[in-house]
């Protein structure tokens, strides 16, 4: 089977750092922290009072009042980000074959806030009085469905639900779908809006969230004082295109997608394998898929959640795959700025990785203070760097043992 080349021609983002892709990237370059006190509900009685919320989002203005009303917040994010990605790419489905244009958009939790609200309504008014829009706005796949409806893409439309690896799986699956000849164009990514009392309470009870009340010391990947992740929300959407299709319409190209690896630890509901072997295999598969040697990789956008098990395990996995070269590459976590956006994380970080290659700039792991001997690689502490990087990986690991890694290359004509 012919292995076709796949490139990124458009990107859109709604993140805790900005309401557009350019604004979010500029904040990354400046090392801005998007973490602040929770405003979406009263968290005064909770142990966790910080989150990385999307700020100033006005869906009625961006989507129209009628459409926004029929979407959950996670779907609104996806619709806006997809709209931006299409505009950024200068792509209109009317000039293409809509049956060869598809959608792959992940969400780990979907419309949890809708479930919470409708459950309360059912208790108060009776279960037959819940909203008729509850199911079609709350289910995880509806972001993907609405993106397809609004874009007119009639090819495969799917929603990987693989927890915190979902965004990476969505982009990686879309890449393979185009590469192997099933489509020319895919809108892909991930979206999440789960800063709710139930979600924050649930993650707090399992001791996954940081309870540090200082926004600058809450999400601190690879730092020895890390104590859990900070809940984030947002969306990242990429437009992937088969290379000849992109060139034929004169599209600008940000980066090339070269390889993808996905594995499962098959080990534990929430904890990764301590030796990082599942994540290591995903990275090794991505490199083999792209025909790139470990020594060629310059940068890794780490999963880097700021939990003890993840950060130490991911560091071990990188050493397993890269050997001595692990100490020569750069590996930072942009979750130090965005918090952990769950099913959107891999997509947002794929965008940041592509832009790192495009602009020759490696993001920092901000607010890093106390080195951890178990995480002794170059985590680009506190200040981003200008660097001529050609190959980069983006990693995601999720509850259930899901591991995903995508290999990108700087676009060179």
Automatic annotation (TrEMBL):
UniProt enzyme class: transferase
Sequence ranges assigned to domain Ketosynthase family 3 (KS3) in this UniProt record: 3-410
InterPro entries xref list: 3-oxoacyl-ACP_synth-2, Beta-ketoacyl_synthase, Ketoacyl_synth_C, Ketoacyl_synth_N, PKS_Beta-ketoAc_synthase_dom, Thiolase-like
Catalytic activity entry: a fatty acyl-[ACP] + malonyl-[ACP] + H(+) = a 3-oxoacyl-[ACP] + holo-[ACP] + CO2; (9Z)-hexadecenoyl-[ACP] + malonyl-[ACP] + H(+) = 3-oxo-(11Z)-octadecenoyl-[ACP] + holo-[ACP] + CO2
GO terms classed as biological process: fatty acid biosynthetic process
GO cellular component: cytosol
Descriptive protein name: 3-oxoacyl-[acyl-carrier-protein] synthase 2
Species whose genome carries this gene: Flintibacter hominis
């Amino acid at each position: 089977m012919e292995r076709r080349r796949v490139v990124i021609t458009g990107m859109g983002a709604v993140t805790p750092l900005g309401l557009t892709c350019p604004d979010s990237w500029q904040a990354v370059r400046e090392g801005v922290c998007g973490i602040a006190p929770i405003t979406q509900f009263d968290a005064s009685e909770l142990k966790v009072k910080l989150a990385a919320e999307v700020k100033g989002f006005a869906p009625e203005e961006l989507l129209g009042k009628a459409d926004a009303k029929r979407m959950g917040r996670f779907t609104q994010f996806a619709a806006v980000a997809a709209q931006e990605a299409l505009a950024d790419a200068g792509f209109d489905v009317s000039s293409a074959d809509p049956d060869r244009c598809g959608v792959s958009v992940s969400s780990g939790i979907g419309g949890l806030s809708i479930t919470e609200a409708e459950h309360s309504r059912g208790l108060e008014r009776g279960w037959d009085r819940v909203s008729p829009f509850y199911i079609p706005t709350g289910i995880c796949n509806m972001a993907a469905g609405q993106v397809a409806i609004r874009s007119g893409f009639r090819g495969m439309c799917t929603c990987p639900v693989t927890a915190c690896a979902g965004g990476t799986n969505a982009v990686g699956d879309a890449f393979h779908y185009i590469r192997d000849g099933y489509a020319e164009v895919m809108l892909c990514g991930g979206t999440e809006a789960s800063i709710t009392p139930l979600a924050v309470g649930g993650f707090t009870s399992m001791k996954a969230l940081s309870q540090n009340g200082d926004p600058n010391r809450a999400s601190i990947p690879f730092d020895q004082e890390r104590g859990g992740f900070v809940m984030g929300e947002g969306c990242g959407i990429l437009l992937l295109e088969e290379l000849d299709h992109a060139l034929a319409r004169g599209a600008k190209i940000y980066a090339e997608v070269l390889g993808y690896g996905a594995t499962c630890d098959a080990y534990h509901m929430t904890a990764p394998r301590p030796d990082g072997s599942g994540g290591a295999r995903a990275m090794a598969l991505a490199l083999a898929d792209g025909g790139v040697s470990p020594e060629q990789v310059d940068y890794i956008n780490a999963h880097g959640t700021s939990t003890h098990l993840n950060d130490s395990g991911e560091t071990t996995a990188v050493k397993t795959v890269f050997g001595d070269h692990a100490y020569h590459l750069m590996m930072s976590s942009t979750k130090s700025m965005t918090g952990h956006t769950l099913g959107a994380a891999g997509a947002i970080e794929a965008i940041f990785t592509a832009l790192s290659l495009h602009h020759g700039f490696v993001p920092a792991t901000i607010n890093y203070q106390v080195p951890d001997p178990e995480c002794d690689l170059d985590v680009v502490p506190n200040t981003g760097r200008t660097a001529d990087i050609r190959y980069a990986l983006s990693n995601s690991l999720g509850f259930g043992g899901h591991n995903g890694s995508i290999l990108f290359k700087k676009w060179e004509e």
